[in-house]
Amino acid sequence: MPGLLTSPSFPNDVPIAPLHVIDYQLLVRGDAEEMDNLFQAARELGFWYLKNHGTEEDAQRMFSTFGGTLDLPLAEKMLYEQGDSGNSFGYKAKGKIVTDKNGTLDCSEFFNVAQDDALSWPTVIHRDYPATITSRMQDVVTPFVRKSRDINFLLLSVFEHKLGLPRGDLWKLHPSTGTCGGEARCVKTPPNAQQAGIGAHSDFGTLSLVHNRLGGLQVMQPGSDKWLYIKPLPGHIVCNVGDALAIFSGGILRSCVHRVMPPPGEQARYARHSVAFFTRPGDQIPLRHLSERSKMVSDSVSQAPPGQYEPGATAGEWTSRRIRSLRLKSRAGWLASQGTEHSSGVQSQTH
Ligand SMILES: O=C(O)CCC(=O)C(=O)O
Ligand SMILES: [Fe+2]
Fold first, then answer.
1. Are 287 and 314 in contact (CB under 8 A)?
2. How far does the centroid of ligand 1 lie from the alpha carbon of residue 167, in Å?
3. Measuring CA to CA, which residue among 34, 29, 46 is closest to residue 201?
4. pLDDT value for 98
5. Residue having the nearest C-alpha atom to atom 3 of ligand 1
6. Residue ranges around ligand 1 (CB below 6 Å)
7. What integer pLDDT is reported at residue 217 of this predicted model?
8. Fewer Cβ within 10 Å of end Cβ, the chain: N or C?
9. Distance CA 258, CA 324 (A)
10. Out of the domains of life, which is the source (predicted)?
11. Which pLDDT tens digit goes with each residue over 256-292?
12. Homologous superfamily of the 20-342 domain (CATH)
């Protein structure tokens, strides 16, 4: 599959975001310095690389499984289209989402598989998927989802500790009973694209794990108006904080605006695939800062405008509202889909 190649190599004349590299194995061992590094990365930019995570082969199998699915004829993929009701699971066709305030439509397609469906397989919780996915659910998708979720839970335990929250406080917002919006995704953008694959947005979940082969992912540092590329590093996951975790932490952890542009330099001639896993809170969990549980969070909330970290919705309601707005294909939808980063002045959406 040519689109999965890492060559031609990433050019060295484009601006690159200076992300911290976090060693997962050091976190597993409870290394205090690495925990500090992770906390610093999540507070500053909300993006970091993760190495030694042990899921590289699982991710490679996801690229093949989902890459093959996205290569199916359009009519077949459309049988699984997510629709306009605010549901994220299934297929998102090209041109369904606005990427900027002028109403420019996106050129990316994705396939999303619900964490709930992967973990309960063969019991269906949300929806059905094409045979290219169901035939690999047990040996590819479910292990990827389970391992990615475990990684995020370890990262959350570090954040609990560093935020002064009681142990388990962030975990329990992601219960294993009931439904949640967590999902695995593969994004594909065509070769020689002339517009954004995914417009500026912040992720609306808790934590995202992104496996990149070709470049194109860009992030904007808080207080800057410049886009910086995130250079794919072999064997490294790009991790980022989503809006829900920014809200729970009263803004201490940053959910930063990012987008997907055509790959830089010679890489632009190829189709680009990425594989991601999104941890999202349980659908019934109220999205609200945890200031009653941590003095650090309460101090942060007390300095923010009233209501900033209290959108007045459950995680499930909020996610579906955002997706519905994104698909309105209008300037109004674009504005309504903005997440916690609206305060930065960047015109962003949430995904
Ligand atoms: O494709 C990527 O590198 C990132 C995708 C992304 O930001 C998203 O799906 O929310
Ligand atoms: Fe994203």
1. yes
2. 30
3. 46
4. 81
5. 217
6. 185, 187, 198, 203, 210, 212, 217, 258, 260, 274, 276, 351
7. 98
8. N
9. 20
10. Eukaryota
11. 999 999 999 999 999 999 999 999 999 999 999 999 9
12. B-lactam Antibiotic, Isopenicillin N Synthase; Chain (2.60.120.330)
- In 60-214, DSSP assigns E strands to 90-92, 109-114, 183-189, 198-202, 207-212
Q: How far apart are CA 271 and CA 286, in angstroms?
A: 39
Which-ligand-closest: CA of 215? 1
Instruction: Choose which residue among 97, 183, 198 to substitute to test ligand 1 binding: the one with the highest number of ligand atoms within 8 A of its C-beta.
Output: 198
Helix axes 142-163, 32-44, angle to 10 degrees: 90
Sign of CA dihedral 140, 146, 152, 158: negative
ipTM score above 0.85: yes
Confidence (pLDDT) at 344: 37
Q: Report pLDDT for 127.
A: 97
Query: Can you tell me which atom of ligand 1 is nearest the CA of 187?
Result: 1
Report domain extents, the chain: 20-342
Task: Give the helix/strand (H/E) hosting 334.
Answer: helix 331-336
The stretches in the chain having pLDDT less than 70 are 1-2, 328-351
- State in Å: Cα 111 to ligand 1 middle: 12
